Amino acid sequence: MTARVRQEPRGAARPRTPRRPRLPALLALLVGVAGVGYRLALLLADAPPANSDEATMGLAALHIARGQDFPVWFYGQAYMGTLEAYLAAPLLALTGPSVLALRLPTLALYALFLLLVWRLTRRLGGDRWFALLIVGFLALGSDRIVKNQLIAGGGYPELNPAGVGLALLTLDLCTGRPDARLPRWAAWGLISGLMLWVDPLLLPYIAGTGAVLVAWRRRELAGRAGIVTVAALLLGAAPMLLDSLRHGRDPFTAVLAASGGDAAAGWGERLHGGLVLGPPLGMGFCSPGHCATWQLWWALAFPVLLALAGLSAWRALRPAASPAPPAGPPMSVPPPARPPRSVPPPAGSPAAPSPSATPPPSAVSAAVRLALVVGAAAVLGAYVASSAAGRTPVESARYLSCLAVATPALLWPLRAATRGGRGVPRIAAVAVLAALLGTAAVATAAAVRTVPATHAEADRHRTLVATLDELGVRHVRAGYWTCNRLTFASGEDVLCAVVDDELRPGFDRYPAYRRAVDADPGAGWVAPVGSPLAVRLDQRLGPDRGELDVVTVEGWRVYLPRR
């Protein structure tokens, strides 16, 4: 009996192949938008609080916008490049002095970081749900985290997107992507050079990804790719190199001196500040200004995860690095067919890497993960070795901000345990992930609760600026944390010279301000209410000529010489 074949009617739709699940990608997009929106809401509410260091970068941006000055370094020092000032200068040229305009480029850098970290997690071999977890964790923002990401105080907002970008470029170059290879080499070199100028905190990641490139692409680097990479690196670091040649400065020595290496801090203090407080503070698990005892659990989990992540990457890398053993006795095989004649690439285009020299993607993923883990360990080790970890652990935890670059590699063991593990390992991994997100969420909520007070303080500062303008005051003396913030907020209508609590000259990052203030016999004084400087100035109040009158603004006291 002949079987009848059922024919589809003409025009009927063929069954489609099921598409890859898009729900995790959609959720990641929503979570990323929420993370950016949360930070934008903080900026609109004047949080995180502004300070004079950030205002110093703002003054550099104002000077660039006006064509008045083009600084290489953060004013008053020979390290920390002014990339943030150059990014903000076009906005300040339109808006004038504005903390919001100064911070919009840092918000854009954070959004870029989330986009790149999703891409990096997927390129490393992580599934979309794991990438969603990474984006969700990084969308949260404790007090220390949002300060690192949003305050344009020099160096920190650029580090994370740059580090993730280097890792992505390393993956692309080592897996042999044939398109735009020379531009990718140039991008790796340019980002590395810029970060060497801006802040050498990213150096461990530059060295780690560079080592991966040398290990698997040294033949390519021996040709045009190496020339392009070195040229781009020199271009990115050009401001630093030219300034060093011109003035004989060594920025790396200046960085080491600034880390407090010559200050008194015992190893007990360094180990406690660096290993106990450092990881929870630096990765967003603590409340504003302190870590509760229960929030310190991450100090125990972090080194364990770091070791497991390094071991996992090393074990995945070893089979690719060692030759495969012979499978058995030799067999007679027919000779291979003659390969087709290769077609030469078009003139002027870089040749694609040889397939025989291209490592498998799993090996490249393991190598990049290992580079990220080693980079994170080096960042933490350098921080522990500095006296800053012992003397000012809460504020100095900002030096650990680039630990976030290694987040996909650091949490990789938890991914493996939740996907392939059973019993106790899987339960432990789920518990750690829940604690991770829960602790970061609690710290984020604690940061949100400080916003009303921060907004009120910013309002008081705006009232102070307006009062000085009404009084016609153009030159004042004040403490370090008042001076440049006041000068930036007024658009340099008020120039300020720094004094200490005993009215002695302090550290002026821009010496021209002191010269202008010293030349004005009618220069006033500004001090926060209740501060030691205000108490000292209150002793000079009186009715006689040359003594001081006081004008009180909410939260501030303005002292003017009696004429």
UniProtKB/TrEMBL annotation:
It comes from the Bacteria. The keyword DNA damage does not apply. The chain crosses the membrane at residues 23-45, 100-117, 129-146, 185-214, 221-242, 296-314, 366-385, 397-415, 427-448. Keywords: Membrane, Transmembrane, Transmembrane helix. The keyword Transcription regulation does not apply. Residues 323-360 are annotated as: Disordered. This is DUF423 domain-containing protein. It comes from Micromonospora sicca.
